[in-house]
Amino acid sequence: QLQLVESGGGLVQPGGSLRLACAASRFTLDRYAIGWFRQAPGKEREGVSCISRSDSRTFYADSVKGRFTISRDNAKNTVYLQMNSLKPEDTAVYYCATVPPLLFNVCVSPSVVDYWGQGTQVTVSS
Q1: What's the pLDDT tens digit per position in 86-119?
Q2: In sequence order, what are the residues at sequence separation of 6 or more whose Cβ sits closer than 8 angstroms to the Cβ of residue 104?
Q3: Cα separation of 119 and 126, whole Å?
Q4: Residue 55 pLDDT > 80
């Protein structure tokens, strides 16, 4: 059973930063594009950012562009999401997920995800 484990969530004040990590067990992440998604209470799950399998192409939703940075360290089998200038509307459970490499162009659509992590809570509040 493939497993993705997110970490790094927590409570932060507006304007603050967090770095989320997505680690894989029982498989290597470099076989997949990886996406970060989030779901706020009462809202649908939405794609935030994704990174391609091999050439590090990236995609960001307009709501996070310029504030969030996705990266991957294949040697550590981990993908990161650096989140800066956080806003209260960024509050959500954040999930990482695997996306088939050929579907990178639609990687922020939850419907193309193969495997989900369990999620990590991010709360932005003063």
Answers
A1: 999 999 999 999 998 888 888 989 999 999 999 9
A2: 33, 50, 52, 53, 57, 59
A3: 23
A4: no
Residue 29: strand, helix, or coil: helix
**Which neighbouring-strand residues pair with 120?**
94
Query: Under a CB-based contact definition with an 8 Å cutoff, are residues 69 and 118 in contact?
Result: no
Nearest alpha-carbon partner for 79 in 96, 63, 95, 64? 96
What's the one-letter identity of residue 76?
K
E strands of 13-125, at which residues? 18-25, 33-39, 46-51, 58-60, 68-73, 78-83, 92-99, 115-116, 120-124
Indicate the burial class of 109 (C-beta count within 10 angstroms; 0-12, 13-18, 19 or more). middle
Q: What is the mean pLDDT of residues 48-62?
A: 91
